[in-house]
Amino acid sequence: MNNTQHQEMVKKAVRGRFRGHQTIKSKAVPLYPKTAEREFRRITGAYMKLLNEELKKKLPDMMAEYRRERNGDSRFDDSQDLDAKLRLLLQDVAAALEKRIAEYGLDQKVEQIAKMTKNASIREWKRAVKDTLGIDLLDDYYKGEFFEEAIRRWIAENILLIKSIPSETLGDMREIILSSYLKGSSIRDIQKAIQETYDVSRRKAQLLARDQVATLNAQLTKAQQTDAGCKKYRWSDSRDGRVRDCHRELNGKVFSWDDPPEMWYETKRGRVYTGRRCHPGEDNCCRCVAIPVFDRDSIDVPMK
After folding, report:
1. 3-state secondary structure the chain
2. Each residue of 176-206: pLDDT tens digit?
3. Are the C-beta atoms of 13 and 133 separated by less than 8 Å?
4. Using an 8 Å Cβ cutoff, are 150 and 220 in contact?
């Protein structure tokens, strides 16, 4: 069967459901992959815990070097010595963390998150097609090469993103100690600042998990719907207190996959448009989803 014959078969199977209309609304709202996000947050939390453990092992040595150099005769020369010693100690932290990452299996765990997100996306897409068009999709259609490139790219990018967090964090801590040295800060103040920096990095890792799962889900959703001939979608927010005003206003509106809406935020002086155009899930930490709008003339799904 060629593509034209297959498309005619699909149209025949769903003709009665359109009832003369050009488009038909989905009877199912795709669910956001909360389980995948929750698991990714758990993984990033465990990863940051490893960093904290390795940092604590070297922190006494760093503070000892700080005390020793602060008692030197030349503040400028001693700061250079302190910098060199801090770099060596922080390199030890990074090396120890890299070893523990390998033992932890970070790469494999990130790959598992990608698979969880993909499976959830496929499950929700099949449900929308079944409930709306009465069609059962081929079980293995989305398990071949269809999504593999996007999945591989996402895995590689996220492994790099996660591994970049310690590098940034340790660099920030080094700057804290050096600037504290020049200001003559106490050990207690330094330790407090280091803890605050770690807490910021930990929260950043948690936000990364939410943002990246949403991004992958958005990419897969767009690929599924456009491949099936859906030219448009209906925006659906997550309907909770964390929904930003912009996305709440977009909720229920129909947009073209070729023309995403522009994002904005409110200020005391009025609305400010960011210049960023996003589909559901593409904005920062966005948990919105795209509800498919099926088109009578272009619908083409891999039915059984």
Report:
1. CCHHHHHHHHHHHHHHHHCCCCEEECCCCCCCCHHHHHHHHHHHHHHHHHHHHHHHHHHHHHHHHHHHHHCCCCHHHHHHHHHHHHHHHHHHHHHHHHHHHHHHCHHHHHHHHHHHHHHHHHHHHHHHHHHHHCCCECCCHHHCCCCHHHHHHHHHHHHHHHHHHHHHHHHHHHHHHHHHHHHCCCHHHHHHHHHHHHHHHHHHHHHHHHHHHHHHHHHHHHHHHHHCCCCEEEEECCCCCCCCHHHHHHCCCEEECCECCEEEEEECCEEEEEEEECCCCCCCCCCCEEEEEEECCCCCCCEC
2. 999 998 888 899 999 999 999 999 999 999 9
3. yes
4. yes
Per-residue pLDDT at 155: 94
Query: 233: which strand partners?
Result: 255, 292
- To 10 degrees, what angle do helices 187-227 and 34-70 make? 150
Query: What average pLDDT does the structure give for the chain?
Result: 89
pLDDT, mean of residues 210-225: 94
- Report how far apart, in Å, the C-alpha atoms of 300 and of each of 8, 18, 65, 143 are: 9, 14, 68, 18
Indicate if the pLDDT at residue 78 is higher than 70.
Answer: no
Instruction: For residues 80 and 2, give the distance between their C-alpha atoms in angstroms, rounded to a whole number.
Output: 72
Which tokens sit at 104? 């932890």
Distance set, CA 131 to CA 19, 30, 106 (Å): 16, 11, 38
pTM over 0.85: yes
Query: Average of pLDDT values for 60-83?
Result: 77
Q: Which residues pair with 89 in a beta bridge?
A: none
